[in-house]
Amino acid sequence: MRRNLGFRYTLLALIVTTTLTIIPLLIVIFYSFLTKNSSGGVIYQFSLDAYRTIFSREYALVLKDTLVITFWATSMTMMIALPCAYYMALSRHKDILMMIIIVPFWTNFLVRIFAWKAILEANGFLNLILLKIGLIDTPLMFLYNRTAVIVVLAYTSLPFAILPLYNAIEKFDFSLLEAARDLGSGHMRSLRKILLPNIRGGIVASMVFVAIPIFGQYIVPQLIGGGNAGTFMLGQQIANVFFNERNWPVPSAITTLLMFITLIGFFGVRIRTLHKNRQHLAKNK
């Protein structure tokens, strides 16, 4: 009876996954090899025009800007998330700290982005403070530039970085750090040589959870960057081509290419991890 119940649940999960994930992805891949219809949609005729388009100079520049923004936003997120997760793991009030991190993200995503616009705009809160304390004479425009986009992307990604890191650090044996200090190792050296290698899995998970959503972002660069040079990301390009040019094959080709790049990266990391585990087991033997 239990085996039959387990099989039913597994079959249900397989059906849901296939219906909601695999079939739509296959449709996207299929559309990427079709011909654009000028009135929208596709013509069911094989074509590689979409892939020729995405390898043009225009798309290469958008991809470059997207990669640069993703790199710096992910780096900023990790630099903030690591100390936060470390402090939370050691704190007696970790539940309260967890609530402080999570509760703001219960509000609507768009509301939070517009709140950042209210902070960064010319007559916003940040300029008001700087004018009051006399650091500036006239308001500065903090919006519609790459730095603003990176800062807001890092803010929106923080919980996705902190939670996996906190989970990894909480399982760490802190007596190893005490032993290192007893042997004369400094605090920062102990963290770098002992803590970080032992929470590598949490770091990688955090970076993946942060970088992939940032790479496909549309709302933040659109509202905070305003579509200016240096802030235009691939998600905006997909939306423009799909809605303005009514071109379905090109966004499908971009999505297909990014999916395969992600899969190659995932399997590469997985193979490297398995190889290291085998080496570790061989040494222990």
How does this model look, in words?
By secondary structure, this protein is mainly alpha-helical. The chain has a domain at 63-249: MetI-like (MetI-like fold). It contains 13 helices and two strands, in the order H-E-E-H-H-H-H-H-H-H-H-H-H-H-H. It has helices at residues 2-31, 49-54, 57-90, 94-102, 109-120, 125-132, 146-170, 175-182, 187-198, 200-215, 219-225, 234-244, 249-284; strands spanning 34-36, 42-46. The chain has a two-stranded antiparallel sheet with strand order 1-2. Strand 1 and strand 2 form a beta hairpin. Helix 1 (2-31) packs across helix 13 (249-284) and helix 7 runs antiparallel to helix 10. The radius of gyration is 24 Å and the shape is globular. Keywords: Cell membrane, Membrane, Transmembrane, Transmembrane helix, Transport. InterPro entries: MetI-like (IPR000515), MetI-like_sf (IPR035906).
The CATH topology label of one domain is MetI-like fold
Q: Which architecture of one domain would the CATH scheme give at its second level? A: Orthogonal Bundle
Q: Helix- and strand-based class?
A: mainly alpha
- Count of individual beta strands: 2
Q: Helical stretch count?
A: 13
**Text of the CATH class of one domain:** Mainly Alpha
Rg (CA only)? 24 Å
CATH superfamily descriptor of one domain:
MetI-like
The helix fraction, in percent, is over 70%
Spatial ordering of strands, largest sheet? 1-2
Major sheet characteristics: 2 strands, antiparallel
Strand content: under 5%
SSE ordering: HEEHHHHHHHHHHHH
Distance between the ends = 42 Å
Contiguous runs where pLDDT drops below 50 for at least 5 residues: none
Query: Which descriptor suits the 3D outline?
Result: globular
Average predicted local confidence, pLDDT: 88
Oligomeric nature of the chains: single chain
GO biological process, one term: transmembrane transport
Subcellular location: Cell membrane
Keywords: Cell membrane, Membrane, Transmembrane, Transmembrane helix, Transport
Pfam families: BPD_transp_1
